[in-house]
């Protein structure tokens, strides 16, 4: 199967919500819903007002052009940090892949594309958060150069610097 990559646009918001749900519900133990995300400021700030001028992201598509994954980055503020916040000059990324397409390289393609974009635009790095026991995601991030730089609750904050 061929995977395409295209820029995430403002009208991709519903799909990005579904990918945020995939990221949050990776283990099935704390099932978030689209409604609960929209009503939780700590979750919704990843997408509120999508797409801000400084936001950037990509959508992975399958052979039929349907979206199968997404990765996006947003600059968050110290007074409204994300789970993987490091500093205001470093965007935090979110990544999600539809369940049937996990393990096939889609996540690596998405994160690699964001890294290339961030380097081309001279950002100092990218950050993210990964929960304990999410070993598949952690391995993906480590393979792309992310290292643990902090801890919040049951999650590590990871950073790749350029």
What is the CATH C level class, in words?
Alpha Beta
According to CATH, the homologous superfamily is: Gcn5-related N-acetyltransferase (GNAT)
CATH-level-2 architecture = 3-Layer(aba) Sandwich
Largest sheet: 4 strands, antiparallel
Spatial strand sequence of the major β-sheet: 1-2-3-4
- Rg: 14 Å
- The separation of the N and C termini measures 32 Å
Average per-residue pLDDT, rounded, comes to: 93
Could you tell me the strand content as a percent range? 25-35%
| Assembly annotation | single chain
**Structural class per helix/strand content?**
alpha+beta
Compute the number of structural domains. 1
Run of helices and strands? EHHHEEEHEHEE
Give the CA-based shape. globular
Helical fraction equals: 25-40%
The helix tally amounts to: 5
Written account of the structure:
The protein is α+β, with helices and mostly antiparallel strands and 162 residues long. The protein has one domain: 3-Layer(aba) Sandwich (Aminopeptidase), CATH 3.40.630.30. The chain contains 5 helices and 7 strands; from the N terminus they run E-H-H-H-E-E-E-H-E-H-E-E. The strands form 2 sheets. Strands 1-2-3-4 form a 4-stranded antiparallel β-sheet, sandwiched between helices. Strands 5-7-6 form a 3-stranded antiparallel β-sheet. A hairpin with a 2-residue loop joins strand 6 and strand 7. It is globular.
């Amino acid at each position: 199967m061929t995977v395409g990559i295209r820029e995430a646009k403002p009208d991709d918001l519903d799909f990005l919500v579904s990918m945020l749900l995939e990221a949050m519900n990776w283990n099935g133990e704390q099932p978030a819903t689209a409604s609960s995300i929209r009503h939780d400021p700590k979750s919704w700030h990843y997408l509120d007002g999508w797409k801000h001028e400084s936001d950037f992201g990509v959508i992975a598509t399958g052979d039929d052009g349907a979206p199968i994954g997404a990765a996006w980055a947003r600059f968050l503020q110290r007074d409204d940090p994300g789970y993987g916040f490091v500093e205001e000059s470093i965007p935090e990324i979110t990544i999600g892949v539809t369940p049937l397409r996990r393990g096939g390289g889609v996540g690596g393609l998405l994160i690699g594309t964001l890294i290339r974009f961030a380097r081309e635009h001279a950002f100092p790095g990218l950050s993210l958060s990964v929960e304990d026991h999410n070993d598949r995601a952690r391995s993906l991030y480590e393979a792309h150069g992310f290292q643990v730089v902090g801890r919040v609750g049951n999650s590590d904050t990871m950073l790749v610097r350029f």
